[in-house]
Design brief:
Helix content: 40-55%
Bound molecules: N-acetyl-beta-D-glucopyranosylamine
Radius of gyration: 27 Å
Oligomer: single chain
Length: 814
């Protein structure tokens, strides 16, 4: 572990560098600079400090020729870069002084930093938290992804419904990236194949696109390591512009070829759960892995010859099924292009890849129609068939005469349209598979991937997710970070989160609790200010800040949260205040544009917000703020203010959840089911510091399997009935409300009705504890003290130990 002292720059030096960058890169002066000029120049100034470290890191890597971890992910939610990089280089204070000396408000400059929203939700943010930890732990690593021109859509509400607007995040340029147009890779699609000897083949693509990389720096915290994330952008070949058509006035046709090629990296698919049967999405996936594998081979060859050492120097982690086409691609390169024997190529491939599964929902496991793969990637389809054939032969040898087993294991789904099961391909072509929380990993082997757990028991691991304490405490919650550092005597805990355990005794210290409450209150004030200016809702900074932030999905059960809000509203209206404490209900989250059921729930939440917020009678007790456009930046504002974390999915559905960790580490108590990582959070923080309710995964599965009658709960529970009726005919009626209620009473896939009473009673317990602020604060402090386990540093250590066999390579001290 190398410790770097913060960069020793004075405000004058930073000012000098900034003025220099203004002149050299923006061609302007302080006097005439626009706010954007100042932002860009400041970003470059900070970036320069990271570049020195990056160079030293690459030197250390070059000298040691280490094993590299390559993370393949279709999504990265990196969050804003400026604030983070100022803190990581220790230049935050001096930069502030420098800007002030120039008469510039640092907040105005910081506001121009655009978040690259290259992901949908937890999976993409996890990728960013893992990269942060990899660098912090000095592990040689590169993240590979796609540089989408348009990231996750921007969300607005019109008449309470979600409206999606394009996110042209690089409109003014992205100062954090280094384009490398000369490192282009060629990627083929379509075309024909010809058979050769020994499983070999020749593929002649019908279309060729170029992938152009650029990289962003990923600094470690408190160390000299700076890794990179390398993002690919599709570009047409040179001279694709058709001058003659343009000359003939056919302007659209003149750029047709360019548009076709560049479409590949145009947009991030705004979906995180269901497979979109779109050729373009498959194209994106292949584009990502074809470019990245080439790049990895290029890097490997800088210091190594031949293929024998490849699996020792390269491990590739597949983040969900999106990049799994990398497995047949590596086989194609090794067998067709490099001329290796199939067996040898397969042995190399299987030792290179590891796969993380992030779901339990069968509908979220990608499958592609065989006809589509055959058309788009004909050679890969042949290779997949061969892989499958050999794998099933192997199984047949071990378990002769079990056709059902073969059917369950096969990479090809038969019966109806033939499809390729990407998760099966991932399991067969890798040496390790992991789930993302203890319960999830267990359920994977018992349900979703059960057939494989039987034949490949040693393949399966658990690596519980984690979050970056730098992003979600140091950057997001400076107040709490300072308070903790003061208590623990320095900020070393940010690199060693288990040290939070030392806070345990602080829970009993009244003075510390008072300071804690003051920090929380200030954070709630900031959130209230934001809510006021963006949505016009006035939040009381002393009210319990009750937060549900995550993608809108039925299994996550935002509808349960809304039903309870209606119950609170109705209790207040009828003067039944026994279980009521002042609450600010905060929602944040997007729904996939085509996911109508989720959008109905979102609509309902907005309708409830409108009615509640307009009612002076309930105003002292209840406000609802649905903050639009939830993203990492918004998370950094909401999470530090939260007192209560809503983790209320139907048990057995949420793979891990990561907002549960972010909120717990910021001192929110959890109300939740035994689902995903909630289980481990509860184990660690202690049952007495966690509001548990509802069915567990086994109970939920049993109820689901039997004759379930959601309507009976409605009939028997007065409060539930009143809440539901208020949606169909009462104050919360809206267009679509009938369908929503029809779903709940008729089928209720996610058992909202069955868990309603337990949830509502548990919320009463929340209110009871909240009334005792000392007790609440003690619990909050204990939550933080006992949540060190959920650092992404621990996650990376687990991966390094159990899966990657990767070791730190610290750069030489500065
Ligand atoms: C999501 C799960 C979450 C989990 C994140 C990160 C997908 C496919 N899965 O529960 O729903 O926390 O992955 O592992 O986005």
């Amino acid at each position: 572990m190398t410790h770097v002292s913060p960069v020793c720059a004075t405000p004058t030096e930073i000012e000098f560098e900034l003025v220099g960058n203004l002149a050299r890169s923006r061609g302007t002066t302080v006097e005439s600079a626009s706010p954007e000029d100042l932002y860009q120049a400041l970003a470059l100034t900070v970036r320069d400090h990271l570049v020195d470290r990056y160079i030293r890191t690459t030197q250390a890597h070059y000298e040691t020729n280490p094993r590299f971890v390559y993370y393949f992910s279709a999504e990265y939610m990196l969050g804003r870069q400026l604030g983070q990089n100022l803190l990581y280089t220790g230049t935050a204070d001096v930069a502030r002084s420098a800007l002030e000396a120039l008469g510039v408000d640092p907040a105005d400059v910081a506001a121009l930093d655009v978040e690259p929203g290259l992901g949908n939700g937890g999976l993409g943010r996890l990728a960013a938290c893992l990269l942060d930890a990899l660098a912090t732990l000095d592990i040689p690593a590169v993240g590979y992804g796609i540089r989408y021109d348009f990231g996750i859509f921007k969300q607005e509400f019109r008449e309470e419904a979600q409206v999606e607007r394009p996110d042209d995040w690089t409109y003014y340029g992205n100062p954090w990236e280094f384009p490398a147009p000369d490192d282009q890779q060629r990627v083929g699609f379509y075309g024909t194949t010809e058979p050769g000897e020994g499983g070999r083949g020749t593929w002649t693509p019908g279309e060729v696109v170029r992938g152009e990389p650029s990289h962003m720096l990923v600094p470690g915290y408190g160390t000299g390591t700076v890794n990179i994330v390398r993002l690919w952008r599709a570009r047409a070949a040179r001279e694709s512009f058709d001058l003659s058509r343009f000359g003939a006035g056919r302007y659209g046709e003149a750029v047709e070829a360019i548009v076709r090629s560049e479409t590949i990296s145009k947009v991030l698919y705004p979906d995180d759960s269901t497979e979109l049967g779109r050729e373009l999405r498959l194209k994106q996936q292949y584009f990502l892995v074809a470019c990245s594998l080439r790049d990895i081979i290029r890097r490997y060859r800088l210091r190594n010859d031949g293929w024998d050492a490849f699996p020792d120097k390269v491990v590739i982690q597949l983040n969900d099924t999106h990049p799994v086409i990398a497995i047949p691609e590596l086989m194609r390169i090794l067998v067709d292009e490099e001329g290796l024997e199939w067996e040898r190529a397969w042995s190399i491939t299987q030792r290179v890849f590891a796969y993380t599964c992030h779901t339990l929902l069968p509908e979220a496991l990608e499958t592609w129609p065989v006809w589509l793969l055959r058309r788009l990637l004909p050679r890969h389809m042949e290779i997949i068939f061969l892989i499958n054939h050999r794998f099933l032969q192997q199984v047949e040898r071990l378990h002769p005469g079990e056709p059902e087993r073969l059917r369950l294991l096969s990479i090809i789904e038969e019966g109806g349209e033939q499809r390729v099961r990407m998760a099966h391909l991932a399991v067969v072509g890798s040496f390790a598979v992991n789930g993302v929380a203890a319960l999830h990993s267990r359920l994977l082997t018992e349900t979703t991937l059960r057939a494989f757990a039987d034949v490949l028991p040693h393949h399966f691991h658990n690596v519980t997710n984690g979050i970056s304490p730098r992003r979600f405490l140091l950057v997001a919650n400076p107040g709490l970070t300072r308070l903790i550092s003061a208590r623990l005597g320095g900020s070393e805990w940010l690199r060693d989160l288990d040290r939070l355990a030392e806070l345990e005794s602080a829970a009993g210290d009244p003075e510390f609790r008072a300071r804690w409450q003051a920090v929380k209150r200030r954070n709630r004030q900031e959130l209230a200010h934001y809510a006021q200016t963006t949505t016009g809702v006035t939040l009381d900074p002393d009210a319990l800040c009750d937060v549900m932030i995550k993608r809108f999905h039925e299994y996550k059960r935002q509808v349960l949260r809304v039903l309870h809000v209606i119950v609170l509203y109705q209790r207040i209206k009828r003067g039944d205040l026994a279980g009521v404490v002042p609450r600010s209900i905060v929602f944040g989250g997007k729904a996939a544009p085509g996911y109508h059921a989720a959008k109905r729930v979102m609509r309902l939440a907005n309708v409830v917000a409108r009615v509640v917020n307009a009612d002076p009678e309930v105003a002292p007790y209840l406000k609802v703020a649905f903050l639009p456009d939830y993203n990492v930046t918004r998370a950094e504002l909401i999470i530090p203010a939260a007192d209560l974390s809503e983790q209320i999915s139907m048990a057995g559905k949420e793979a891990s959840g990561t907002s549960n960790m972010k909120l717990a580490l910021n001192g929110a108590l959890t109300i939740g089911t035994l689902d995903g990582a909630n289980v481990e959070i509860r184990e660690r923080v202690g049952a007495e510091n966690f509001f548990l309710f509802g069915m567990d995964a086994a109970e939920a599965a049993a109820l689901r399997a039997g004759p379930y009658q959601p309507r009976s709960y409605y009939e028997q529970d007065f409060e539930l009935r009143a809440a539901i009726d208020a949606i169909t005919g009462g104050p919360f009626a809206f267009d679509g409300g009938d369908i929503l209620v029809g779903d709940l009473l008729g089928h209720d896939e996610y058992l909202t009705m069955a868990d309603f009473r337990a949830y509502t009673d548990c919320q009463d317990e929340v209110a009871r504890v909240w009334r005792d602020q000392d007790e609440w604060t003690r619990r909050a402090i204990r939550n933080v003290a006992r949540s060190g386990f959920f650092s992404s540093d621990r996650t990376i250590r687990d991966y390094c130990r159990d899966i990657w066999r990767a070791v730190p390579v610290p750069p030489k001290p500065e």
